[in-house]
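Sat 14:20. Reprocessing the chain from the morning session after the first attempt stalled halfway. Input below, unchanged.
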Amino acid sequence: MRIGLIGAGAVGQSVGALLVACGWCRELRVASGSQASARGLVTDLEDMAEVTGSPMRVTVTTPQAMGACDAIVLSPRAPFTNRARSDVRMAGLIANGLGPAGAVLDALAHTLGILDCRTEVSVHQDAGVWLGMPVHYTSGTPALRPPSLGDSETAQLAAATEKLHTAYARLTEEI
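Finished this time. C-alpha cells:
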C-alpha cells in the first residue's frame, strides 16, 4: 500500500507515526509547504521504522508526484493557539494530533479494504447529540446498514416520520 501525506504538522506527524506502527503501509510519500518540515518528518519516521522493525519506506516528494498513491491524506496546517494553563503539551497534542489522526487511519483502513467491518459515520448536532448511520465496508466498498428495529422502534420511527412530513407540508404551504 502506498500512501501520500501532504502536511508535516501535528496531524501529519501523528498520521505518519500511526502508519509506521500499523504495518499495512509499505510506502509513505511526504510533502509539505516547507521542505525542511517534510525532511524532518521523514527522518523521524525512518528512525521509528528502524526501531520498530516496520517495513515502511518513507520519502520526501511533491504533491504532484503522488499520482501513483493508493490514497492521499491532506493535513494542512491550521492556525492554533494553545490556551491550556496546565499540561500544555498534551492539550495541543489532543487538539491537533491524536484524535484527527486516529479518525484518518480508521477511514483509510476501511476505504482501502484493509478492514472489513462496520463503523459508525456520525455528525454532531446541537447539545451533544450525535446522529449516525452504520456503514459496513467490504473490500473497501461501503454499504449503509441501518440497524434492525423492534416493533416498538418501528412504530416510533413511523410516528416521527409522519410528524416530520406533516411539519414540512405545513411549512411548504406557508412559504
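Helices lie at 10-22, 35-52, 88-111, 151-174.
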